[in-house]
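Researcher: Please predict.
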Amino acid sequence: MRFLKQVDSKNFINLSLNQGVNILVALLVTPYVFQTLGEDTFGVVNLALSIIMLFSILVNYGFHLNGPKHLALVKTNRAQKEVLINEILCTRIFVSILLFVLLLVCINLFDFFDQQAAILTFSTIILFNEAIFPMFILQGLDRISWVAYGNAASKIIYGVAIFLVLGSPQEAKWVNFLLGCSALVVNAVLLVFIYKSEKIQFSLPKLSALAKRVEQNFHYFLSTIAGHISIHGGLVILTNFVTDAQLGKYALAQRVAFLLRLVPTFVIQSTLQQASIYYQTNKEKYKAYLKASYTNSLLMTLFLGLIVSISAPIVIRVIGGEYLESSSDLLRIMAFIPFASALNVKNMIEILATEKKAELAKATWIAALFMVVASILSSYFYGAIGLAVALLVTEGVNYLAHTIVLRIAKSGDLSRPI
């Protein structure tokens, strides 16, 4: 209860319930998908998803980082709110169309993803879902509960569709397609409700306005690319050094670890708005609030890491439908990735609250470059276990990079004449 008093409890609870739905659906659907597709095809499906997630960051363009904050500042002004929402949505839709065409060209002309091109092609629907995903709107309007309701609806549709459609490895292309399609339909409905409830209208902005948005968010865009490379790039690198079966076993452990890794993100999303207010109005409250949120996020993720690591064989048996020793060993290591990620919670809140976007881009790219080098070397010499260790170490490097860059920025601010 003490923790909930130190953050926006409503947002944190809704985000946690939202993730709880994801975990529940994963527990129900993943064993069926894994058993139906087999290790090899399951690994290919997850590889396609990782590739699309890397492309989806281009669609997002960093608006998830500063969009909610900007919207919160103008939410009482209907005209400004309408312009901001339309400009961000149209920018993301335009980018998603460009990327869709680019991927189709790469797949059909250059034999990109020659393993099973149909799986990647059908996965591209996730790009359009990312374009219209209204998280930044609902977060800025303080209506996170709508995200939870929408996510629950889309996951129920997805779960039912998987059991109805998927019956053999030959139907693997439908796994990611159904995931994206169910979310796309629900998010489109959410947008209709948002526009009606806020009494705003959709309109196409001028190209000059879109160009200005692109320029303003460039540093956030760079940091988002680096962040996703650090998180999702490892699986792509691993494909060059292991078989599809080994890739599938790794993907099983990664799915659990990366679901838990969202906990630090929830803390940041839940505390950022209040932290930004305290930073502007009361520096002492800001420091105390930041310290309390940071401490509790560390305790929470450490507890989760210990529980999941100890119970890894049980978790893998439940998720995969059978006991896989290699997946269990991987999860014992990767269970502590959320804790290592939580080390950087304080830095992230401070950077976003103070708009130090150039520093954010520098730090995230340092971590991303380290991850690429470390993942290639560790995967080459030690396979999936090596990659798991590399990703865990990368989180520590990410924390150090942000800490050092932030301190340099602070020292520069202090030395600058008033």
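Model: The CA atoms of residues 220 and 333 lie 30 Å apart.
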